[in-house]
Amino acid sequence: MRNLFVASLFIVKLSLAAQTNVNPYLKLAAENNPELQVRFNDFMASLEMIPQARGLDDPKIAFGYFIQPVETRVGAQRANIGLTQTFPWFGTLKAREQAACQVVEAKLAAFQDTKLKLFQEVRVSYNELYYLKKAVQLTEENLQLLHSLRELARVNFESGKTGFVSVLRVEMEEKELEAKLALLRDSQASSIAAFENLVNSAIKPEIQFPDSLELVSLEYMGLALSDSLLAKNLQLQELKFQAMASQDQVEVARMMSRPSFSVGLNYTLIEERPDIEIPGNGKNAMLFPQVGMSIPLFQKKYQAMQNQAILEKQRIQYQIEDKSNKLRTQLEFLVRDHLDGQRRIALYRNLSYLAERSLSLLQTEFTTGKADFEEVLRMERKLLAYQLELEKARVDINNAVYKINYLIGNEKFEY
Question: pLDDT digit string (tens) for 328-359?
């Protein structure tokens, strides 16, 4: 069963070679995540409902012993054995099987939804870890820059170009950045622990990341996204199958309100008569075919079963409407985040370039005493902020794409 479980997860190929770094962790999560195992076993258990639904009731066998034998011409009847098989109204078994099949489809959709959601969460968590790694790296680089600026400020102080306050300002800036770096490293440790809990496994060696996060593009845009959401979202599919199962249950209840039939055979054991010699004396091979019919007199309970199934279907239809509205709203915000991320990338890429040039110029001017050291430090802070925002924008774009593809049930994107 485990091989079937794993094989059911990896049925389509990756469409993006740039995302292969996360693939081993997706596979690890698929094999170890307990929630996914629960959904898979729930689906496998539902498959066992189908043979139960289409199967007949067990035949009944009855044995009777005559305390006072019934005398017949060929001997006294001593015992009676009967076998009876009941058959429901025509079409009942088919309706029950169809209802069970719809339940199986709903369980399969729930399993697939859990799988895609898990893969989305792994990708998003992986991207957050990538951002923290880049944030630590950029912060460390800026600390090195501050060390250089501190030496530069010390040289200028010794040469009388600036006051000692410039050296103190750099040291203050260094202390603040070291505190931020410590927080980032603590966040890394917490996020790695959360990532390991998600894949339900310790990760050895350490998690590998690309040098730069390649941007992922959306496969659908505009109205195509909304159409795909309503047609392919797995949560909606699960509810739709549940609604169809309720409709089939209405038919099952209607069929149960019809008569059922039974056929059977009786076999009577006859004791031989010692007082006479006649043909067939004591012969006990007496078969009596029987045909019966159950009459469903108490129709209220069957009508209640139909009403229950109808109300259940209406409840699910309201759920579908509510879920569709919430999913459309969620999709709108994710598309907004995706567009905002694109704008931020263009903005911070340009600002980082300008800040880097400005900082280089300010350092040169400060060396010659033409620039205020406060301007140098301000530009250094801006450069770090722009670099971090650029990486955050990359992560936000990809995370928005992952979440959108989960909403529209885009399995091809995942695998």
Answer: 999 999 999 999 999 999 999 999 999 999 98
Residue pair 95/58 in contact by the 8 Å Cβ criterion: no
Q: What pLDDT digit, counting tens, does each position of 67-84 carry? A: 777 666 556 667 778 888
Report which DSSP code applies to 73.
Answer: T
Amino acid letter for position 288: F
Residue type present at position 343 = R
Each domain of the chain, given as residue ranges in start order, spans: 2-32+88-258+296-409
158 to each of 51, 280, 366, how far by Cα in Å? Answer: 91, 135, 14
CATH superfamily of this structure's domain 2-32+88-258+296-409: Outer membrane efflux proteins (OEP) (1.20.1600.10)
Q: Are 216 and 401 in contact (CB under 8 A)?
A: yes
- Position 54 scores a pLDDT of 87
Give the distance from CA 20 to its chain's centroid: 21
Q: In the beta sheet, which residues pair with residue 288?
A: 266
Amino acid at 105: E
Span 160-211, pLDDT tens digits: 667 777 778 888 888 999 999 999 999 999 999 999 999 988 888 788 888 8
DSSP 83-133: EEEEE-STTHHHHHHHHHHHHHHHHHHHHHHHHHHHHHHHHHHHHHHHHHH
pLDDT in tens, 235-253: 999 999 999 999 999 999 8
Q: Which of 367, 15, 405 is nearest to 156 (CA)?
A: 367
Measure the N-to-C terminal CA separation of the chain; round to a whole number of Å.
21
Overall size of the chain counted in residues: 415
* Cα dihedral 218, 221, 227, 230 in deg (nearest 10): 40
Cβ(175)–Cβ(163) below 8 Å: no
Q: Is the confidence at residue 12, as pLDDT, over 50?
A: no
What's the whole-model pTM score?
0.81
Q: Which of 131, 77, 91, 408 is nearest to 272 (CA)?
A: 77
For residue 302, the model assigns a pLDDT of: 87
